[in-house]
Amino acid sequence: MSVLPFILQKEFRQIFRDKTILAMMFAMPIIQLIILPLAMNFDVKNVNIAVVDHDHSSYSRQLITKIVSSGYFKLTGSELSYDRALQHIEKEEADLVMEIPQGFERNLVREGVQKIGLSADAINGTKAFIGSGYLNAIIKDFNENLELNITAPAGAASAGTIDITYSNWFNPRAESKYYLVPGILVLLLTMIGGFITALNIVKEKETGTIEQINVTPIKKWEFIAGKLVLC
After folding, report:
1. Are 196 and 23 in contact (CB under 8 A)?
2. Residue 96: enclosing H or E segment and its boundaries?
3. pLDDT on residue 155
4. C-alpha span between 20 and 206 (Å, rounded)
5. What is the CB-side half-sphere exposure of residue 15 using CA atoms within 13 A?
6. Are 47 and 95 in contact (CB under 8 A)?
């Protein structure tokens, strides 16, 4: 073990003499840590949606506004018929079509039930599946926040409920790229350590210093341990 400090001293001197190794140790991981989270972003946004509004009521306009203002959808067209809206999918201009039937607001107020037609482009299955999930969640939130659903009927016994709310402190918008940073950092540290160790050994073979090490009383495990401890 008394030889190991001298090996480490030799490794530090060799690394600081070679600018290429320094660039691979510091510059390359930093650049990759900046680029990879952006390239591996799993958030699906800007889902193109075409809307067919047969009702043209205040509730239908509120629903459309809520969908567009969510940040996940981009309104590509507002058509008068479903067939014309379907052409946006055929031309790959839209991923989803939402059809609001006539009497949407009236049925919600009087009967409390109303169906909405949703059509998804199954060619891009992943985007259609995630976009449909986003749209269902927005519609569900819109339904829960309607005034007629918030206001309880007169004389009705209100059941006790627990309202659970949560918030992301360090990633308020829950963007996946920020969750990927710790994993990418660990991956880069593991890979760079192996690369630098291999590159350092090859560099010694090219410069001929490894031949000098072979004739010294240094054991193999001490030589390998010096490379691994440094990286």
Report:
1. no
2. strand 96-100
3. 47
4. 14
5. 22
6. yes
